[in-house]
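**Protein record**
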Amino acid sequence: MGKGQKKDPKNVQRKEKAKMQLKRNIGYFEGVSFIVGSIVGAGIFVSPTGVLKHSLLNIGVALTIWTASGLVSLMGALCYAELGTALPFCGGEYSHIKRGLGSLPAFVFIWTSTFAKPASNAARALLFAEYATQPFYGVCPVPDVLKKCLALAVLWSLGILNGLSVKMSAWVQAVFTLLKMMALSVIAVGGIVLIARQKESLARFEDMFGSEIPNASQVAEAFFQGLYAYGGWWSLNYMAEEMKNPSRNIPLTVMTAVPAVIVFYLLVNISYLTVLTPKEIVSSVAVAVTWADRVIPSVAWIIPLSVAVSIFGALNSSMFTLGRLSYAGSQSGHLPLLISMLNVHSCTPAPAMIFSTIIASIFIIPSDLMMLTNYFGFSGWLMIGLTCASLIVLRYREPHLHRPYKVFLPVPFMMVAMSFFLVLAPIIWSPNLQYFYAFLFMLGSLIIYLPFIHFKFRFAFLDKITCHLQLLLEVCPADGSDEGKCE
C-alpha cells in the first residue's frame, strides 16, 4: 500500500472481526440473565428453611435477614461493578486480585477454585438428575448409577455448548432464566392473591416480631443461610471481556438484577408464610413442592420441574464463568498454556471448557460430595474479601486508572470487614478439622507455585503434547500472545 493510499474502513473492520480474541457478544439482557440465573438455583424452591430455623421461627427476623442478605450482596456486586468497568477482563476475582494484591494470592485463588467450583458444579448436576428422574420413580429412591450418568450427560452437554458458541450459551441462559422467574412469579403472585382473598392470612404478619428473638450467634447462622441463597452475584465480572459496552452495561446490569432477585425472594418467602406455618416450612424437605400441593394440587408437578429447570440454568451460568476463570488463569501462566487458547472457528475458550468439565466429571464419582463442597465453603468469602481489598488498594495505588463507575468508598471497607467476619465466625463458633484441611490445601498451592510459576520450571515433553492437542482441537493462542504457536 502506497503512502498516499487511504485505508479501506471495511478492510479494517474485517481485520478487527478476524482477530483471535473473545468477542463482545453479551449485552444488557444477557448480563441480567446470567446474574439472575446464577443466583436463583434450587435453594429458594427447595429449602429456604435455614433462615427461618435459625431465626427461631420469628417471621419478622427472618424477612429482615432476607432483606439484609440481599443488600450485602448488592453492596458486593457494586464493588465488583467498579472493578469490572475499570478492568474489563475475563477471570472475575482472579484478575482483580492479581492486579491489586499480586501473583501469589491470585494463584491461591485459582488453585482453590479449580477444585472447589467444579465440585460445586458436580453437586448441581447430581441435584438436577435427582429432580429430573424422581417423578419416574415415585416414592422409590433413584438409582445412583442413573443419577450419575444423567449428571455426566448434562455436564458434557453444557460444556460442549459453551465451548461451541457464546451466543447459543447466552440464549439458553436467557430461556432458562425466564422459565425459572415465571415459576417464582407463580408462587409470588399466588401468595398475593391469597392475602387479598383471605384476610386471615394477614394474621400471622400482624405481630411478626412477637415470638422469641434469636441471639447474636443464631442471627449470624441465619445470615449465613441468607447469603448462601444470594450466591452468584459475582458472576458478571467473569464475562466483562465479552460484554458490549461494559462501562455502561456492567453497573446497569447489577443494579437491575440483584434488586429484582431481592424483591422476588421476599415475595416468595411471604407467599410460603401465607400458605404454610413456620413449623411446616422448617419440617418440609421441599417447601415449594409443599406449597404447590396446597395451592395448585392439580398442576403441582410444575414446581419439581421448575426446580430442575432452575438448577440447569444455574449450572450453565456456573460452567460459563468457570471456563473464563481457567482461560484467564492460563493467560497469566498459572495454568497450562493450552487452556488459554481459543477455537479458530468460534473464538471460544474451548480447551478451558473441556478442562473444567473434566474436573467436574471426576467429582461426580464421590458419594459424599456435599461434604467436599463444604470444605471450601468459607473460602468463597475469603476471596470476596481479598477482591474488595484489591479495589481499595487500586484506589490508592492507581488513582488515575479510568473508572467509568465508582462505588462509595466505605462500601468496600464494609465488605472486607463482613467477609472476614464470615470466614472467621464459623471457625471460632464451631471449630472443625475440615477447615484445617481446607487451609492446608490452600497452602499446598505453594508447592506448585514456587517451582512452576516463580522459577518457571518447565517440562519439554509437555510442549510437544500441547502442540499435538492444539492441532487436534483446532485452537490457537489469542492475539497478543506469542507463546504456543506450532510451526
In short: The longest strand covers residues 341-343. Residues 12-16, 482-487 have pLDDT under 50 and may be disordered.
